Amino acid sequence: MESEMKCNISQMWSPKLPKGLDLEISHHPMTMKHVANLIIALERLRAGTPESVLSTEFRDENLVGIMLESLVEEHIVVERRSAPPSQFTRTCQHQCSMTDSQKRDLVKDPNSMELHAVTLQAGSEDRKVRLTMSTYVHPSPSTEARPVALCIDQNLYLSCHMEDNVPTLHLETVEDKSSLQRISSDSDMVRFLFYSRVTGLNVSTFMSARFPDWYISTAEDDNKPVEMCMESENRYTTFQIRSKTPLTECRLAPQSHLRRS
Per CATH, which fold does 87-246 belong to? Predict the structure, then answer.
């Protein structure tokens, strides 16, 4: 129901307005913006305006003009955030040694493009692979992970892609290493990336960036292939990593670790 509110301007501001001028408001303002506009208009009337009011010929148009000059304008501010980068960017490279949780070294099988976990005897240390780990900046800061690429013997990189509907681990030759400097998050090159999660002192797991919940792993038996597996499978998924001198100068970059529910 509309209510009426009358203000006798001649009583409130008699020094400023001619006798007999009343301001009638037919209904209460419905929003705070309307209230603010009304208050400002009344304050201007009380303080005096450039508008010359000399008689009762002061018309509605004059009052409307004064009120329009006092309108409170509503500005909508839209917060814009820059889109996160869409690339994994390499920051540095380290030479590392890598053994599984059973203290077995990784060696390349001479008869296949596979890595095997082997307990090496004294005097056969030269059989284990030389590992280079490249670290990357993740394109999404909200994702807690350290993306890495793993290289052996100069240009052989570990990769994970689908084979017979199962994510499988491979060794691929990369002739142009600059192609791994920046990796688009939606490109096929993501197969070379793994999320390294630290689980203890120098102990890490390596989950495929392309296939979540699939990990680099070793078998219970000695001299078996290194493969991808789900964490629930009966395989070893943790590795002891010992980094050596960086091969390239590392650039400062935000680092995080993968949180898994």
Answer: Trefoil (Acidic Fibroblast Growth Factor, subunit A) (2.80.10)
